[in-house]
């Protein structure tokens, strides 16, 4: 098996040589933002002039504060387009049920035999293992990767999940392996943003475990599902996916730290592959989806997130901003829960954590 995922972490190293490239990309992004503004203005004028039905819909939407959810917003699109299919209707040969070779020890529902549990707790207590580091493997490497992967996972002859329908049917994205990777990567970047807010040594560990599992899984799927029989070809695919990951993370980070227009540009270049017949409503729906996930993550404490107490908000659900009173109540309940856990002498060493529950 190729040890591609043992390479240097994606957030380390010097990128001085990329400075001209980054400046060029930033200039192209600013140019595309102006094009987005012009397109939106032209679209409004065209709708008022030629589409009375669209005007009625816009008037109805103005009566509301906002569209209920990203999915509902995407469905307001009036572009007559079918979901793209670059495979010429080739069957999707996904290995049914293989999200990843699951270990029973990584399952939240699995209970160790009592003697194994006692031995493990003794080892943790004796050697004073840092469970916040140990926990990164099963939480980030398995649970969070499974969440990201399943958002756009598809099986031959089976109905798509609600989240997959949002990406493939509402947003008209092609059902290809490369597109699945881009959707998975988008969700991984959302988690990266929260992981960076953790203490550095823990956040970095969580990110690396997630990246390692991603490329290990892609390598397995290339051989088992995509019928790649050459190690050299598989290595080239892995290098291409690694390059896509680095570029997408740079682009999404720039959008996250600037404005929604820049973020929409990054979404257009990566998730929509920079295609020309893009609907601005679809871009807005994805940006709303991203901002909703990031808002929920920003309200999670480090300990809650590190314990795996997060799920992506489905695209057919909306996220409302908490009032200061609601936020204070939630923080109070979380603090009470973990204070009691830390004070309880019967709490197992494997369930203890040094991470904050008040941030």
TrEMBL record:
Protein origin, superkingdom: Eukaryota
GO terms under biological process: mitochondrial respiratory chain complex III assembly; positive regulation of mitochondrial translation; protein stabilization
Pfam families the record matches: Ubiq_cyt_C_chap
Record-level GO cellular component terms: Cbp3p-Cbp6 complex; mitochondrial membrane; mitochondrial ribosome
Domain Ubiquinol-cytochrome c chaperone positions: 169-312
MF GO annotations: mRNA binding; ribosome binding
Family: Belongs to the CBP3 family.
Name under which the protein is recorded: Ubiquinol-cytochrome c chaperone domain-containing protein
Organism of provenance: Torulaspora delbrueckii
């Amino acid at each position: 098996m190729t040890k591609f995922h043992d390479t240097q972490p994606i957030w380390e190293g010097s990128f001085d040589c990329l400075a001209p490239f980054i400046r060029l990309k930033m200039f192209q992004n600013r140019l595309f933002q102006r094009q987005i503004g012009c397109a939106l203005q032209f679209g409004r004028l065209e709708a008022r002039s030629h589409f009375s039905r669209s005007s009625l819909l816009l008037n109805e939407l103005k009566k509301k504060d906002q569209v209920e959810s990203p999915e509902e917003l995407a469905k307001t699109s009036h572009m007559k387009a079918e979901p793209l299919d670059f495979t010429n209707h080739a069957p999707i040969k996904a290995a049914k049920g293989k999200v990843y070779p699951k270990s029973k020890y990584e399952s939240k529902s699995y209970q160790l035999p009592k003697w194994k549990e006692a031995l493990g707790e003794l080892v943790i207590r004796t050697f004073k293992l840092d469970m916040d580091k140990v926990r990164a493997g099963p939480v980030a490497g398995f649970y969070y990767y499974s969440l990201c992967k399943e958002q756009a996972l598809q099986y031959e002859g089976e109905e798509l999940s609600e989240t997959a329908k949002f990406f493939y049917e509402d947003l008209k994205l092609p059902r290809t392996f490369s597109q699945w990777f881009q959707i998975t990567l988008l969700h991984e970047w959302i988690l990266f943003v929260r992981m960076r807010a953790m203490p550095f040594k823990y956040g970095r560990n969580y990110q690396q475990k997630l990246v390692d599992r991603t490329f290990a899984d892609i390598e397995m799927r290339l051989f088992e599902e995509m019928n790649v029989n050459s190690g050299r070809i598989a290595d080239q695919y892995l290098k291409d996916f690694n390059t896509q990951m680095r570029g997408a993370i740079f682009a999404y980070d720039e959008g996250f730290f600037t404005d929604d227009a820049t973020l929409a540009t990054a979404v257009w270049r990566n998730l929509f592959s920079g295609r020309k017949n893009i609907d601005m409503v679809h871009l807005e729906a994805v940006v709303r989806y991203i901002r909703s996930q990031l808002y929920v993550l920003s309200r999670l404490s480090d300990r809650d997130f590190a314990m795996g107490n997060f799920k992506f908000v489905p695209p057919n659900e909306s996220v409302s901003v908490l009032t200061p009173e609601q936020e204070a109540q939630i923080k109070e309940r979380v603090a009470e829960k973990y204070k009691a856990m830390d004070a309880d002498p019967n709490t197992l060493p494997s369930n203890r954590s040094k991470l904050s529950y008040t941030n």
